[in-house]
Design brief:
Helices cover 43% and strands 18% of the residues. By secondary structure, it is an alpha+beta fold. It has 3 domains: 3-66 and 87-115; 123-222, Cupredoxins -  blue copper proteins (Immunoglobulin-like, Sandwich); 243-337, Cytochrome c-like domain (Cytochrome Bc1 Complex, Chain D, domain 2, Orthogonal Bundle). The strands form 3 sheets. A 5-stranded mixed β-sheet has the order 3-2-1-5-8. The longest helix has 34 residues, at 36-69. The structure holds dinuclear copper ion. Dinuclear copper ion binds at residues 129, 132, 168, 203, 205-207, 211, 214.
């Protein structure tokens, strides 16, 4: 090959690489990672992207050069010279991809192994998914259950996940991983948060009518703030249990069944807006012409019995009709006692 050809090929290749690199770097393809695991996944992503850009630039440079240099004249209908085999080239285009694919496999395997490593010191959180709510339980804190995931910065967390009805999938884009929750088995995800903030928890497996609404939040807090939050939350549960109406069992049922994931209810400290605001339960019952308690009970076990204006039927899970009587009673008492008089 003449030197001039090589120089031109390299020049075109560099130009293509520069444009491709700009597209790769200046478009925000990935969310800013908020966990150590996401960092490793991002590293693999950029590693593969860099290799791809190099190969893309090489191929485009050769194509562009060939198109320009060897194009046929408008009146030239003759065939090109016959070509058969080029052992050197064939070995090269087999060996180079084989090496690249092996290297990518090794880099990916190392990242995966590191992401699945669970250090001895870790916080365990049980994640429960059901149509169409998330709930998070902390065995370390007397089974404290909430509808938003709260995590201390820098501490590795083991999410033990199970589904009550159909397959769901847990995804926080900034944490970089997805994990299915499958009825009958327990799956797990390991997260080491490294950036403070509030991130969306998304269900990423089509799980029924309410799938698009099956969202929550993951809140990464400073360890001190997290500890303070745990104490405050436990105090609130204890206080509620002494309140008239036996709020403790009711509040526990409210949180563990995921009510707080969809409803605003001041006595429970929840402010979700997927379903009706339960602070207005008394007014809703009056509008339906039903006694408050009967209205609350029916609305739990048969959610489609009354649909508030502005809300859709079939969004609230119908699974609560199998709620143990004790829990249902406590829940009804908690809801009715919490109404403004
Ligand atoms: Cu749960 Cu989609």
């Amino acid at each position: 090959m003449r030197r001039g050809v090589l120089v031109r090929l390299v020049a075109v290749g560099l130009a293509v690489a520069a444009v491709t690199l700009a597209v790769a770097l200046f478009v925000p393809w990935l969310p800013t990672p908020a966990s150590k695991q996401a960092d490793r996944i991002d590293f693999v992503f950029w590693f593969v992207t860099a290799i791809s850009i190099a190969i893309f630039a090489l191929v485009v440079a050769v194509i562009l050069y060939s198109v320009v240099r060897f194009r046929a004249a408008p009146d030239d209908d003759s065939d090109g010279a016959p070509i058969h085999g080029n052992t050197t080239l064939e070995i090269a285009w087999t060996a180079v991809p084989a090496v690249l694919v092996t290297v990518i496999a090794v880099v990916s395997a190392v990242a995966l192994a590191q992401n699945e490593h669970l250090p001895k010191n870790h916080l365990r959180v049980n994640v429960t998914a059901q149509q169409w709510v998330w709930s998070f339980t902390y065995p370390k804190y007397q089974g404290l259950t909430i509808s938003q995931l709260r995590l201390p910065l820098g501490e590795t967390v083991q999410l033990k996940m199970h589904a009550l009805d159909v397959i769901h999938s847990f995804w926080v884009p900034q944490f970089g991983q997805k994990q299915d929750l499958v009825p009958g088995i327990t799956t797990q995800l390991i997260i080491t948060p490294k950036r403070l903030g509030t991130y969306p928890v998304v269900c990423t497996e089509l799980c029924g009518e309410g799938h698009a609404l099956m969202r929550s939040e993951a809140i990464v807090m400073k360890p001190k703030a997290f500890a303070a939050w745990v104490v405050a939350e436990q105090r609130a549960v204890a206080k509620a249990s002494q309140a008239p109406g036996g709020g403790g069992a009711g509040l526990a049922a409210f949180n563990s069944n995921g009510c707080s994931g969809c409803h605003t209810f001041k006595p429970a400290g929840s402010n979700a807006t997927t379903g009706p605001d339960l602070d207005n339960l008394a007014a809703d019952a009056a509008r339906a012409g039903k006694p408050l308690e009967a209205f609350a009970r029916t609305s739990i076990v048969d959610p489609n019995a009354y649909i508030e204006k502005g809300y859709q039927p079939n969004i609230m899970p119908s699974t609560f009709k199998s709620l143990p009587k004790q829990q249902l009673d406590a829940l009804v008492q908690f809801l009715t006692a919490g109404q403004k008089k």
